[in-house]
Amino acid sequence: MGRLILNRSILGILTLIAASALIFIGTEILPGDLASAILQNQATPENLAKLRLDLGLDKPALLRYAEWLFGAVRGDFGRSLANGRDVMELIAPRFGNTMFLAAYAAIVAVPLAVGLGLAAAIRQGGVFDRTVNLLTLMTISVPEYFLAYLLIKYVAVELGWFPSLANVSSDTSFLDRLYYAFLPMLTLVLVIVAHMMRMTRASVLAVMASPYIEMAILKGLTKARIVMRHALPNALAPIISVVALNLAYLIVGVVVVESVFVYPGLGQLMVDEVSKHDVPVVQACGLIFAATFILLNMVADILSILSNPRLRQPR
Amino acid sequence: MTVVAADAPIVLDVQAMRVAVRTDHGDGPVLVDDVSLQLRRGEVIGLIGESGAGKSTIGLASMGYTRRNCFIVGGKVLLGGAGDLRAMTPDQRRALRGLKISYIAQSAAASFNPAMTLMDQVCEAPVRHGVMDTATARAAAVQLFRELDLPHPETIGGRYPHQVSGGQLQRVMAAMAMIGRPEVIVFDEPTTALDVTTQVECLASFRRLVREHGSAALYITHDLAVVAQIADRIMVLRRGKMVEFGDARQILQEPREDYTRRLVSERIAGHTFVAKPEGTAPLLAVKGVTAHYAGRPNVIDDVSLEIQAGDTVAVVGESGSGKSTLARVVTGLLPRAAGDVRFNGASLAPRLKDRSLDQLRRIQMIYQMPDVALNPQQTLLDVIGRPVAFYFKRSRAEVRVRVLELLRQMDLPEHFIDRKTSELSGGQKQRVSIARALAAEPDLIICDEVTSALDQLVGEEILRLLKRLQDELGIGYMFITHDLGTVKRIANKVVVMLRGKMVAGGDTASVFAPPYHPYTELLLSSVPEMRPDWLDEALARRAARIVA
Amino acid sequence: MRLFGHKLSIPAAIGIAVIVVNLLMAVFAPLIAPFDQTTVLGDAWADADAQHWLGLDNLGRDILSRLIYGARMSIGLALVITTLSFFIGIVTGFAAAVAGGWVDQALSRFVDLLLSMPTLIFAFVILSVLGSGLPVLIVTIAVLDSTKVFRLARSVAVGLVSLEFVEAARLRGEGWWWIITREILPNAIPPLTAEFGLRFCFTFLFIAALSFLGLGVQPPAADWGSMVKDYRDMINFGSAAPIYPAAAIAMLTIGVNFVVDWMLSIHSRGQGEGA
């Protein structure tokens, strides 16, 4: 089992390196080169040449990739093309804000979703199950900004309970942050609870349909015992994957929600810099998002290896 | 067989039970229709029938349990002194299950929770019902493991389900059912998933346990020979209705109903050898063939056999013997690593894609599972007509004529020609598979377990059809099977395989007569016969051989 | 009402109605819409009245007409992308399943790699360099989305290839073309149909999200995502303007999901107790 975990960790690191290469190649697939793409209409031979030199485009691509990657490992992503500031300085506080929002949403959403999923699975086919099923199906279908604007219109504007803009800054206190980020958090929670709850329900139902659950019923065990002792330990691995998958989804969902609430996070920064063709910042943000995503998936796989009795107890 | 006193108390009384399917969209079919039985203490009643007979549904309903969308809609289920299960609250029913009545399922591997040790699962029912403390339950479990001849009875309980073999797991499940000292045990096809040699041991363990503990049992199976060994009385079921119910010897020896008579007689009928005259050049000659999947050890090792035109050569073995792999090598799906396969005198290329269309045409195959052997989206015309069009380049009209001819030959109605294969029954699908093989006008047909997915009577009809076609057309059959009963009746030559090697081969009469190869003898002695004394004799023979 | 030989559930019937209405709106927009989508008809943010049921927008254009025209761009674009993504995904997925060996390995590992990153993030990287032209959007999203189609198509085909009727065709000496088009494809259609609905929802929402972020469909064409973006500031003045296009997006995806959910439920039935 230790071997499996080691293998999975190595695979995770290899995936991360490959992903970094992909992000780098993504900016190399142009018909011309990066400099002319950035300057577009304002390109003159002089400023093109200068930008090429700034970007290091005179060096071979492989060397530039190696320099970029080693810089990234040391936390050096170069300078922004838009304002010349150090990329790391731009990113660091915003990354903290994004993680705060994601963690805030996750802490509320995960227990809620797993609990609701279990409850729906146990009452399969009942009124509670059907209602929750229909509501979550609708929630996962709608875009985040639809929920966000509904919340803003009714909770922020009409009731005035929470602010509609979440402009926190470095000197906002923790409690204030919780208050300002409440509506963005709630939007994210609504979306991922629906996803997570449905997938939890499906995993538990798959386990509940197995012959050993029928055997447990025929042994005269109580429903509580069947669920806690027979269904849950076997549903754990799929539930963990579900949670990790949705936390990874959260990383993406956060981009849109940040934009709606003008929350100063990494996602909003990335969106702004994409339209400015600020490639170094976009690459850095992309790498950070990708790394978080890959890391979460790796942790999920390792946890499900740990919770599999067949792997924990070899033949 | 024990004699159950006629005045022994009744422990399970099923009265006019009806079980039906009911969904949101309305009432479905009736699965069990007006079935009654009284089970006395110490008695074993065998429930026998083909698929769809409702026998498992009766077993589960006797515990007051039905699967999703099924409901007990009529009758009573009286369990011991506890009263009618149907009239009880769910909690009252729950208190009886696992304690007064318990269940042994067909697939032990699926019926154990993979995340709990065997000991925890065996002890769970009595401990949770509060009739034993953990220490007592564990001691009782170890005692049962010992009685069931499980290896390392003291420590095997600490293992997880995936760490023990299928036959052992099945016996652990018996311990799990017995530990609460139930008055009634429901055995639901408990040996069907096992190899024949393992089946004998499990069957013997179950019978001893039931007798020693004086439990009553419902024993559900599709195999009359199995139920003959263990049941005092037998109920024959068909499509949810009782056909015949009586003393085991009476059912086996003097069946009253026509359906029972057919079930019983089909098994006894065979034993007529069809010796074919030795031809000149063999149709197929397999010489010293060895094969393996990429990077794995050999699955078959140095196997040789010959098939003449008109021969039926049976390849027999248990799961993992390599018999299906041999078929894959002959057809070229798995290239051989060494040896030669000659067909009509010429060596066949190891790979399928290097063989000529004519070679492909002359060797056809029929599969075990008719459901997946035919494309469910195609009509019979598509399926059977394709080889005609593909190999013989016939026009559409000619293809249709030929398909109709083949349907007649298979005893299938001509108007089936435009039906999709998914609309047919299992036996009909297997006839279509045969028609597809015949459409290529082959010299050799490889039959891979062609009857084992079919009900007994349907399987018999397929065998009879194959036999008739051979007499008419002189085709050679390579007949892969685990069922020695079939082999004895239809094959004139036989090859016995064990873990990829040939252990015996030759004329069926000589292979299946003394002096036997020890493994052949073990296989032969493991095939249940319909005589109720067979199990005792088989066990005695085994004991004698171990002593010798 | 019945479809594919099964009784429609109530949500599925609602879903089909929603889809039909949306498609009609997209096809016949010029006939249905009361005004042109780009003509300025009055003051910015004029209130709703008998003529302009939802009022006028930031440039004084009729919001209802823009919503109706928006269906064309939003639905049309998503359909084009989903179709392209399916074409790529099915061709490569089937090829991987049927060819097996190194072809399968290479394609599968490459797809794993693309899937190891959030689609939105990778799309950002590409768009930061190439800009948000329609062809760039279509190709980028279709290629990224086809990875998911590849996975499903491959696993469906691998399941079918191992079945004996495919083996029987190989033993007969049939070529790959016959096996893929006659043996595999007809049996792969039911699971792929449900997936088409899901992928459509995904690309439709994805395009809308990009437009909302200002990185998708560029003005002056009306599409629902951009309309949410253009009207967003009005929310703070108590107007529901951004909610109309967002609701249009939500309605369609809910409708499609209702139908997909019903299709998937036809195939799955579990077990349980009912004494």
Account of the protein in words:
The complex is a heterotrimer of chains A (315), B (548) and C (275). With 315 residues, chain A is an all-alpha fold. Helices cover 77% and strands 0% of the residues of chain A. Chain A has a single domain (87-312), classed as Orthogonal Bundle (MetI-like fold). Chain A starts with a helix and ends with a helix. The two termini of chain B are 28 Å apart. Chain B has 548 residues and is an alpha/beta fold. In chain B, helix 4 crosses helix 5, helix 4 (118-128) packs parallel to helix 6 (166-178) and helix 6 (166-178) runs parallel beside helix 7. In chain B, 39% of the residues lie in helices and 24% in strands. Chain B contains 21 helices and 20 strands. In chain B, strand 1 (10-23) and strand 2 form a beta hairpin. In chain C, a hairpin with a 2-residue loop joins strand 1 and strand 2. In chain C, strands 1-2 form a two-stranded antiparallel sheet. Chain C has 275 residues and is mainly alpha-helical. The interface between A and C is large, with 60 and 49 residues.
**Quaternary organisation of the protein chains:** heterotrimer
User: Portion of residues in helices of chain A?
Assistant: over 70%
What distance separates the N and C termini of chain A? 12 Å
Number of DSSP strand runs of chain C: 2
Number of continuous helical runs of chain A: 14
**H/E series of chain A, N to C?**
HHHHHHHHHHHHHH
Measured between the Cα atoms of the first and last residue of chain C, the distance is 32 Å
Structural class of chain C: mainly alpha
